[in-house]
Design brief:
By secondary structure, this protein is an alpha+beta fold. Helices cover about 20% and strands about 20% of the residues.
């Protein structure tokens, strides 16, 4: 069997605690935006079904405060930057016109991966705005995803959380995020031996390769990568391109199997980077499986039980059956600092993966069981814990464009951000905004930018 993952080798080979290039986590080039059917419900009493995934009840009633799009765009300001470029500012997002060469680099993925371009733009932002943002979204003004590039990608800028498998890191100066922590924060970090101290608020940057990606793409997936998965090593039986071009300029060294330049391919078990993949977690940090079922009379042979998608039996895609289509599972909520350890059920990971004769089956040699206490023994408790952790995160969004955005493009961006950050139900049975996905435990904020100007 191969529940097929188009792997980029940067994902396969990266040490999950590696700090250089900000621990870049990207979305493979696969189809997305499939419909989601929540009726997975594998029967737990089935003897050969192992540990189906669990989802917690929301902390509050999430079927309230219905989302209603506001069509008004509000005022726009045009600001000349010290670099000579012009920044367009609305209360909910920014737009930056860049030249064709830079735009093409972003479309190939190299513009983000090399980090110079997002760092330059971030510094331009901080010329105008205070250091108030946890996450920067860069959104390319494309109608559809460019060929042979990710849907979304995220890079860590700083981490000052213990117990989630990540090293303490600090790159804020590189992006222009600069503010002094309060004395209370300094005392907290010192009491918990967290060093170096933060020099700014920025935690991560993320790029979406087309305009509609915030709502229909992997937004909840990319946000999950701020916290997960850095606690367990997971594997995937995937397609790896063995072709190595002589010109090893990133990203040409990391061809996906569906790239026409890939002339040699191998199906084999490889590390899945900072994703859950072959586990029963069914988390947003990549992994569509809710359990495995033993195939009778076949040694070490199983079927993965995954989310029921429409159309059925779709090829594996890292965001399950599309983008923002289910709630964060307990282990991710714990790593995000939103629930206590007592609410995290045990989970499993699967390795020793081999193809089976039947393409709908897989050979699994090793099944490893984890409890949350196993994770805490290895990584230590999460610090800050769910009582003291941050619960609201501010985003600033930059639309990267070759021409002045149209009113329609501005409206699309506003509606998507309003949907993502809405503290209430979105009235869509097949999607979750961030507040819904956390069960009302955490929220995002994107508007109010004019009040944050220096």
């Amino acid at each position: 069997m191969y529940f097929f993952l188009i792997l980029l080798l940067s994902l396969s080979c990266k040490d999950k605690k590696q700090a250089n290039h900000g621990n870049i986590i990207e979305e493979p080039n696969n189809p997305t935006n499939m419909a989601y059917n929540p009726n997975i419900s594998p029967k737990q009493e089935t003897p050969d079904l192992r540990a189906p995934a669990k989802v917690l009840e929301p902390a509050v009633n999430i079927d309230t405060n219905s989302f209603e799009p506001d069509p008004t765009l509000g005022k726009i300001e045009q600001i000349k930057l010290s670099t000579g470029r012009t920044l367009l500012v609305r209360d909910f997002a920014l737009a930056l016109q860049i030249d064709q060469s830079e735009y093409s680099e972003w479309n190939s993925g190299s513009g983000f991966r090399k980090q110079q371009a997002p760092a330059k733009i971030a510094k331009e932002i901080y010329e105008i705005f205070s250091d108030s943002f946890d996450i920067i979204f860069y959104v390319s003004n494309n109608k559809k995803k460019p060929n042979n590039v990710y849907h979304g990608i995220l890079s860590e800028v700083s981490n000052h959380i213990k117990g989630i498998g990540k090293e303490i890191s600090e790159r804020n100066a590189q992006f222009g995020s600069k503010s002094s922590p309060s004395q209370e924060e300094i005392d907290f970090y010192k009491s918990k031996s967290i060093s170096p101290l933060p020099v700014g608020k920025l935690k991560a940057i993320s790029h979406f390769s087309y305009l509609e990606a915030i709502k229909i793409g992997p937004t909840l997936h990319e946000l999950a990568h701020i916290w997960a998965n850095y606690i367990v090593d997971t594997k995937v039986l995937g397609c790896v391109c063995e072709t190595k071009p002589s010109n090893c300029e990133y990203p040409e060294c990391n061809l996906s199997c569906d790239n026409p330049k890939c002339k040699s391919k191998t199906i084999k078990e490889v590390p899945s980077g900072s994703h859950w993949i072959s586990s029963n977690i069914a988390g947003h940090a990549g992994g569509p499986y809710v359990g495995i079922q033993k195939v009778a009379q076949k040694k070490d042979t199983y079927k993965f039980i995954k989310f029921d998608c429409t159309p059925p039996n779709v090829n594996y895609i890292i965001t399950h059956c599309g983008g923002n289509l289910w709630a964060y599972p307990p282990i991710e909520l714990y790593l995000m600092g939103l629930i206590p350890k007592e609410q995290v059920p045990d989970f499993e990971t699967y390795s020793g993966l081999q193809e089976a004769a039947d393409e709908n089956e897989i050979i699994i040699k090793n099944i490893k069981h984890y409890s949350i206490d196993d994770i805490i023994k290895k990584e230590g408790p999460r610090i800050p814990n769910y009582k003291d952790s941050q619960k609201e995160f501010r985003i600033i969004t930059v639309l990267l464009t070759k021409t002045t955005p149209t009113e329609k493009e501005w409206s699309s961006l506003k509606e998507q951000l309003a949907w993502l950050t809405h503290k209430g139900t979105d009235n869509i049975a097949t999607s979750f905004n961030f507040w819904e996905a956390t069960g009302g435990r955490a929220s995002l904020v994107s508007d109010g930018l004019f009040s944050l100007k220096k």
